Amino acid sequence: MSAAPVKATGRPAVHIRALAAADALAYKVLRDEALRTAPDAFTSDYASSVGRPAKEYAVRFGALESGSFFLGAFDAAGQLLGCVGCEREQRAQQRHCASVVGMMVAPGAQRQGIGQQLIAACVQAARHVPGLMQLVLTVTASNTHVVRLYEQAGFRAWGLLPRAVVVDTVAYDKLHMLLLLTADPFPACRSK
């Protein structure tokens, strides 16, 4: 992997944009590597995913305005360094909610602020989706660096699922987190 150009701030200069069908292969390569190197961070596993054709991932990319999309962080050479997804609930009574999924940064590009830029862009895009009021996510509770990343983006923990993922007989808890996108999350709703 080539190194990303570095700005004076010490952060790599990345371009964040919505993923498109043409990005499916780069996404698959990044995803397979993330599943292989950080199996406790995902509910999917490497063995079940490695044989999946790249083109199958393109349907997940969606469109920003729908509330279901994936964003990618690209270096100056156009290499995908990281991505994050937002998947809006499809059931009518849950359309106000979307899940942040598939946050990953290539091992050689980690701890350089790319994850922070991706989650900020995801939240910003979600705030512009009509009717979308909140984002939820799960994160491996022992991954304190990533928990802090989400907290800095405004997410707050609301629950813990013990033993949510088991990798090679080791159980990992998942922390559930929430971010309200509007100051008044239910402006047209009555409380009962």
| Strands, count | 8
Sketch the major β-sheet.
Answer: 8 strands, mixed
SS field, number of helical segments: 4
Q: What's the CATH class label?
A: Alpha Beta
Q: Helix and strand string, N-terminal first? A: EHHEEEEHEHEE
Oligomer: single chain
CATH fold name: Aminopeptidase
> What is the radius of gyration computed over CA atoms, rounded to a whole number of angstroms?
17 Å
What is the global morphology? globular
Structural class of the helices, strands and pairings?
alpha+beta
The CATH architecture category equals 3-Layer(aba) Sandwich
Strand residues, percent = 25-35%
Between the first and last Cα atoms, what is the distance in angstroms? 54 Å
Q: Uncertain segments of ≥5 residues (pLDDT<50)?
A: 1-9
CATH superfamily: Gcn5-related N-acetyltransferase (GNAT)
Count of spatially separate domains: 1
> In which range does the helix fraction lie?
10-25%
**Mean of pLDDT:** 89
Overview of the structural elements:
The chain has 192 residues and is of the alpha+beta class. The N terminus is likely disordered. Strands 1, 2, 3, 4, 5, 6, 7 and 8 form an 8-stranded mixed β-sheet that branches. The longest helix is centred in the N-terminal third of the chain and has 14 residues. A hairpin with a 4-residue loop joins strand 2 and strand 3. The chain contains 4 helices and 8 strands, in the order E-H-H-E-E-E-E-H-E-H-E-E. It is 21% helix and 32% strand. It starts with 14 loop residues before the first strand and ends in a 12-residue tail after the last strand. It has one domain: Gcn5-related N-acetyltransferase (GNAT) (Aminopeptidase), CATH 3.40.630.30.
